[in-house]
Design a protein that fits this description.
Blueprint: H1 3-29, H2 41-46, H3 66-88, H4 93-120, H5 129-153, H6 160-173, H7 176-187, H8 203-212
Helix pairs in contact: 1-3, 1-8, 3-4, 4-5, 5-6, 6-8
Length: about 240
C-alpha cells in the first residue's frame, strides 16, 4: 500500500469517525439540550449516566440510535488505528505492530459492545471491556508520546517538529481520560453527571488528526519530489 493511500485511508476513517461521534451525541442531546437549555428539566434528565452510549453498563437506557452510531464510530476509528502506526513509524515494526494490534482490538471490542447493545436495547455481555478501556487509556497517549519523542530526538527538520507535536497532541487528547476531563471545559458546562455534548468533544482532536496526517512524514521517508520546471523560453534568458 502506497503512503498516499495510507494517508488517505487514515484521514478518511478519522474524519468519518468524528462525524459519527457527533451524530451519536446528537441522538442523545438534540433538541432537548440546545445551547442555553442545559438547565431545563428535559436536558437535566438526559444528563443521567444511564443514557451514556460510549461506555455502556448496567443500568442503561438507550436513546434513539446513539449506541449504534457510537459503535460505528469506534469501528471506523479501529480501522484508522490499524493504519496510523505504519504510516507514522518507518521500519520500526517492533513498535508499530503491537500498537496497531492493541488499539485496533480495544476499539473493536468497545465498538461491538456499543453496537450490539444498541441493536438489542440492553447491555450485552462482552468479554474484555475493562482491558479495552485500559489499553486505550494507556497505550494511545504513551505510544503517541514515544513516537513524538523518537521523531524529535533525531533532530528537528524545518517545519517537521511542530506538525509532529501537533499530531501527537491530537492523538493524546482523543484518548478516554483527556476527553472525559476536557468535555465539560469545551462545552462550558459542568453537569451533576454527564455534561451535555461532552461525548462529542472527541470529534475535535480526531478531525484535527485527520488533517495533520497529511503534514507529517516519519524519519527516513522519501521526500516529496521537486516540482518539474517547464522548458525555458526566450524570456528566461539573461539580459
Amino acid at each position: 500500500m502506497s503512503r498516499f493511500v495510507m494517508r488517505a485511508t487514515a484521514s478518511l476513517l478519522l474524519l468519518a469517525s468524528a462525524v459519527m461521534f457527533v451524530t451519536a451525541a446528537a441522538q442523545r442531546w438534540w433538541p432537548a439540550c440546545r445551547r442555553g437549555a442545559f438547565e431545563t428539566d428535559a436536558c437535566l434528565r438526559l444528563q443521567d449516566h444511564v443514557f451514556d452510549h460510549l461506555l455502556i453498563g448496567d443500568p442503561w437506557t438507550p436513546v434513539g440510535n446513539a449506541a449504534q452510531y457510537a459503535g460505528a464510530a469506534m469501528i471506523l476509528l479501529a480501522g484508522a488505528a490499524a493504519v496510523l502506526p505504519f504510516l507514522l513509524v518507518r521500519r520500526a515494526l517492533w513498535f508499530a505492530v503491537p500498537v496497531a494490534v492493541s488499539t485496533t482490538g480495544a476499539l473493536t471490542v468497545l465498538g461491538a459492545h456499543a453496537w450490539t447493545s444498541g441493536v438489542t436495547g440492553k447491555v450485552q455481555p462482552t468479554p474484555g471491556i475493562t482491558a479495552a478501556v485500559l489499553v486505550l487509556t494507556v497505550v494511545v497517549p504513551v505510544a503517541a508520546g514515544i513516537w513524538a519523542t523518537r521523531e524529535l530526538w533525531a533532530g528537528p527538520e524545518p517545519g517537521h517538529y511542530r506538525w509532529t507535536l501537533a499530531l501527537a497532541a491530537a492523538l493524546i487528547v482523543s484518548s478516554p481520560l483527556p476527553t472525559w476531563l476536557l468535555g465539560p471545559v469545551v462545552v462550558l458546562y459542568s453537569s451533576h453527571d454527564t455534561s451535555p455534548w461532552s461525548d462529542a468533544v472527541v470529534a475535535l482532536p480526531l478531525a484535527a488528526a485527520a488533517v495533520l496526517v497529511w503534514k507529517v512524514a516519519p524519519r527516513g521517508a522519501a521526500p516529496a519530489p521537486a516540482p518539474r520546471r517547464r522548458p525555458g523560453t526566450l524570456a528566461d534568458l539573461p539580459g
